[in-house]
Design goal:
The structure holds 2 protein chains of 2 kinds.
Chain A (H helix, E strand, L loop, with lengths): L1 H55 L1 H6 L1 H13 L10 H7 L2 H22 L2 E3 H18 L16 H14 L13 H11 L7 E5 L2 E5 L7 H10 L5 E2 L1 H8 L3 H13 L4 E3 L6 E3 L9 H13 L1
Antiparallel strand pairs in A: 1-3, 2-3, 4-6, 5-6
Helix pairs in contact in A: 5-6, 5-8, 5-12, 6-7
Chain B lengths: L1 H12 L3 H4 L20 H21 L4 E3 L3 H7 L1 E2 L4 E2 L2 H14 L2 E3 L7 E4 L4 H14 L6 E3 H6 L13 H13 L3 E4 L8 E4 L6
Antiparallel strand pairs in B: 1-5, 2-3, 4-5, 6-8, 7-8
Helix pairs in contact in B: 3-5, 6-8
The chains are: A mainly alpha, B alpha+beta.
């Protein structure tokens, strides 16, 4: 009897316990729900703010390379990549995916139009320089609203500003260079990355302390890479003696490496020098681009 | 007096009347390997194209027509870069002209054993249009003009074809005759050759 009561009491206890648990759960759930809701609304606010920010600064994002880099970094930190593609929410909102798409096309253009000269290997900074000028020129042709004059604004690397202003002085004297067309090396690298799914075969190679972009699918062997890196510190040209001196190779190895660089169109030979000098092309002045471009067009159409 | 001679001498020495008269060589003209025939076929193809572009522009700029391997005055400007002490060998120039001939941009003088060539920086067809326009503008159609009048006459002064090379003029006239726009008449000499333009040529 006693025992039975106990049993009843036990059952009642269990029931109570269950009820308590349930109510805890309910509270927990509602807490959880409200937190989620809060988070959701925070996220909405954040997204709305980011939207507003992006809309408001859309022009800056497209035009100001430094601003674009900061925006890009900020977005990367929170796990969105708004500039990567023109498809999808961010791309449609900002229209900035097109930025890299367009840049990618210009990079292809620069690389292909100089390929016959340099064998399809070009310094990153050189690509940037040429693309910038191309954008400047295109801009002057299809000019809409913006007139330049704010040239002192952005460029962090003095190199680009001096070469582009030199170019401006030479050919575009009646046209103010527009900073909206400025890009960074980071932009170029990013655009090359976005080209990858197209099977473009573009590769970024680290040679010495410089980044080079190869527009021809190839594998540079170790010796070729070492020589190309060496040439960066010898004003763009080199001879067998110099290679022997600096790298300590025997003559057969040097000859093979230099010959393959010639065969790949990466170097030109000067046989009027003693000993023969091997040159890396691609350091020509910007005012000549037009002649190279027309020549390449002529060459490919014939 | 001595000042004048000195400055004359200086003028003579300043190596480039070409630069003085405004022809700007592209920077690859200062690239030493540009003067060596490149052993890699693709590189050479591009090198030859670049050279022919430079030659055509240089010839157009100075209204030159004949490339002569023995004409040092022109060649010293074009193919000899004193600044970097590099020059194109005659064989390399010939190889470049061969490329130009294939493209119709030049033509070897058949008797010269590849020492002389005409550079067509403008095609005979284009010269034909230009001369035709001039003839009709002056109302010289239906009268007979001599080759001399076209190339050196007062009326053609200031025209781009003034002082045109006889071979180029000849080719141009052949184009017009072939198209039935003009008829030529034999003269005692080349310059006395005559040409009559028909009204049908008017546009």
């Amino acid at each position: 009897m006693n025992r039975r009561r106990m049993q009843i009491g036990g059952r009642a206890y269990n029931e109570r316990l269950k009820a308590t648990n349930e109510s805890y759960q309910r509270v927990g759930q509602s807490l959880y729900d409200s937190q989620l809701q809060q988070l959701q609304s925070q996220l909405d606010t954040f997204r709305a703010n980011l939207e507003v920010f992006a809309r408001e600064h859309r022009k800056d994002i497209q035009k100001d390379p430094v601003f674009r880099m900061h925006f890009q970094k900020m977005c990367a930190n929170i796990g969105v990549d708004p500039l990567a593609s023109s498809k999808g929410y961010w791309g449609e909102l900002l229209g900035v995916g097109d930025f890299y798409y367009e840049l990618g096309i210009q990079i292809i253009d620069v690389c292909l139009s100089t390929r016959a000269l340099n064998g399809g290997l070009m310094e990153l900074s050189e690509i940037k320089r040429r693309v910038e000028r191309m954008r400047g020129i295109q801009n002057s042709n299809s000019k809409t609203t913006t007139t330049g004059g704010s040239r002192n604004n952005a460029p962090q690397d003095s190199n680009s500003s001096s070469s582009s202003s030199k170019w401006a002085a030479i050919t575009l004297s009646n046209n103010n260079k527009d900073t909206s067309m400025e890009i960074t090396e980071d932009d170029v690298l990013r655009a090359i990355k976005t080209l990858a799914p197209l099977g473009s075969g573009f590769q970024v190679l680290q040679l010495g302390d410089k980044k080079m972009v190869s527009s021809v699918p190839r594998e540079l062997n170790r010796d070729q890479s070492l020589i190309l890196a060496l040439v960066q510190n010898t004003s763009g040209h080199i001879n067998a003696n110099m290679v022997s001196e600096r790298l300590g190779w025997e003559s057969g190895r040097i000859e093979t490496a230099l010959d393959t660089l010639l065969e790949d169109g990466l170097m030109w030979i000067d046989q009027q020098a003693e000993p023969y000098e091997y040159w890396v092309p691609g350091f020509f002045e910007p005012e000549d681009d037009e002649i190279y471009a027309t020549t390449t067009v002529a060459a490919s159409s014939s | 007096m001595s000042d004048v001679t000195a400055s004359n001498a200086a003028a003579g020495l300043s190596q480039s009347p070409a630069l003085a008269s405004g022809f700007q060589f592209p920077s690859i003209h200062n690239f030493p390997p540009f003067y060596t025939l490149q052993p890699t076929a693709s590189t050479w193809k591009n090198q030859a194209e670049l050279w022919s572009t430079i030659i055509m522009r240089y010839y157009k700029h100075h209204r030159l027509y004949q490339l002569d391997l023995d004409d040092t005055a022109v060649n010293d400007q074009l193919f000899n870069n004193q600044r970097i002490n590099r020059r194109l060998k005659p064989e390399t120039i010939q190889a470049i002209v061969d490329v130009m001939v294939k493209k119709g941009d030049a033509e070897w003088d058949a008797t010269s054993k590849k020492r002389r060539a005409i550079v067509y920086w403008r095609k005979p067809e284009d010269w034909a249009e230009m001369i035709l326009a001039w003839v009709f503008e002056l109302g010289l159609n239906n009268s007979i003009l001599t080759f001399y009048e076209i190339a050196h006459g007062e009326d053609s002064e200031g025209q781009e074809f003034h002082n045109i090379h006889p071979t180029v003029l000849q080719k141009t006239m052949e184009v017009l005759v072939r198209r039935g726009i003009a008829a030529t008449f034999q003269g005692a000499t080349f310059e006395e050759m005559g040409v009559k333009f028909f009204n049908a040529g008017a546009k």
